[in-house]
Write a structure and sequence with these properties.
By secondary structure, this protein is an all-alpha fold. It folds into two domains: about 5-130, no CATH class; about 135-215. It is about 65% helix and about 0% strand. The longest helix has 29 residues, at about 140-165. The termini are far apart. About 25% of the residues are buried.
Amino acid sequence: MTTSLYDPLAGDYFEPASARAERDRTFQICSDCRVCVKLCPSFKSLFQMIDAHPDGAHDVKVLHDDEHQRVVDECYQCKLCYVICPYTPEQEQEWKIDFPRLMLRSLAIQEREGKVGRSAKLLARTDLQGKVATFKNPWWRDHQLKVALKMFADSLAELNRAKAKVGNNNDKRIVHAQKEFDNGKNGLCLGHYWRADHEFWETYVIAHEILKSNRR
């Protein structure tokens, strides 16, 4: 089993043949498991291509290089697969895989060979994209904050009216509304204004429904 997958300083880390063998090993384990089939396009494409080959499920080595490349290209490094994978190193299973780092290794080899274009490099710099977007659109964050603060005030007023109407803060609907409101406050404090606005809106809707049902 290859261990250099996790060590970019290892001698064979940038060797295409070694990376190909590691992808074959990993793809075979993924094909036998398929718990990630509903995640990113990488897995959907991988399993479709495997099944398109006669007996491909039993030997994924039949996949061509361009099919490997498709899997690598469609990995967005969201790492959701790592969260649910039963074969990550932390699981202490006989088989150990790390799909996201394997895709990064494959991209690193392409970069060294000069096969990664400038646009792909820029898309990979999500930190840079965030800084540029914030710099170019500071008014948008101000707008989001204003909207969230208005929704904060409206939802708080509606929640207090609902509490007064029900007269029991342990009522399940009140508890639910309070939880949404608290989540909104947390989002506001963290600067996640769009999330805060959504949570406050949920609070308002729940509280409003409580008031409507108690008018009957």
